[in-house]
Amino acid sequence: MKIALLTGFLTALGLVISSIKEKGQQALGLAPGGFDVSSGINKGKVDSLKYYSSLLNSERKALIYTPPGYSPAHTYPVLYLLHGIGGDEYSWFIDGQAHMILDNLIHQGEAEPMIVIFPNGRAMKDDRPLGNLFSTEKLASFEQFEEDLLGSLLPAVEAAYSVCTDSGSRALAGASMGAGQVLNIGMAHPDVFAWLGAFSPAPNTKSPEELVHLAARQQQMQDLLWISSGLEDRLLPIAESRHEYFEELDLAHEYHLSEGGHNYELWKNDLYWFAKKIFKPI
Ligand code: FER
């Protein structure tokens, strides 16, 4: 009985691995157990950050994570981490335990001590994720966020906190609608963000041709252009088609597939591996 179970398990595992290999990519491993749980020691701090949005002519709010031992005597790299269509500035804390993932990685010396900014990527006056999330106005607000991020939020962060301001010290990552924003905004701005992480990009992602066109107009490339997706995600073709086109054109990028769907279970794992890579020599 036990042997039959084990054989079944190994067969299933083999199928999973071969389905990942067929896509020509290495599977992302699973983060070690407890990676998203607070160990209770060396905790960073979460605050809110109010900033004036010149796009909306009003005050907006983002959340900010400062790493354990944050001191204005040092300068820190900054990761901007974006949510999906039903999310807001709280999502990566409530659903993604991003602060605990970062606490653990930084405590273990696996990630650079960094500041993480959690913006609200819906750049409109009422930015709550209520009502029809797919309304024309709400979808447009995800696009408008580019101006809010670059023109208002970034300068506000850099004025208020002790951060490095070179592109090599700025990363932009996000899930789903946030991943679309990462590719759309990030690929046009390697001078601003050297590290991009697009986890399960949504249909707001510009076409492969448009993205390459945006990238080709720049003088430089990102240090890391990461695209990932779950194998059971119905949006997988969005990631897959960008990956295939980039590969055809020899545009340097990483493509990671893992078991799972379109949810924070997967995105937490993405964040774990992505956070370990950024702000380090490549
Ligand atoms: C869509 C399906 C999913 C879409 C957006 C999403 C704009 C976004 C999902 C998410 O952010 O989780 O057709 O169109």
Descriptive notes:
The protein is of the alpha/beta class. It has a single domain, classed as 3-Layer(aba) Sandwich (Rossmann fold), CATH 3.40.50.1820. It contains eight helices and eight strands; from the N terminus they run αβββααβαβαβαβαβα. The chain has an eight-stranded mixed β-sheet, sandwiched between helices. The N and C termini lie far apart (48 Å). About 4% of the residues have low confidence. The site of 3-(4-hydroxy-3-methoxyphenyl)-2-propenoic acid has 8 residues, from loops.
Structure summarized in a few sentences:
With 282 residues, the protein is of the alpha/beta class. Helices cover 38% and strands 18% of the residues. Strands 1-2-4-3-5-6-7-8 form an 8-stranded mixed sheet, sandwiched between helices.
CATH class: Alpha Beta
The end-to-end distance, rounded to whole angstroms, is 48 Å
Question: What is the beta-strand fraction?
Answer: 15-25%
Q: Which class of secondary structure composition applies to the elements?
A: alpha/beta
Q: Tell me the name of the CATH homologous superfamily.
A: Alpha/Beta hydrolase fold, catalytic domain
Total strand count, please? 8
Q: Report the bound ligands by name, code or SMILES.
A: 3-(4-hydroxy-3-methoxyphenyl)-2-propenoic acid
Largest sheet: 8 strands, mixed
**Discrete helix count:** 8
| Percent in helix | 25-40%
Rg: 19 Å
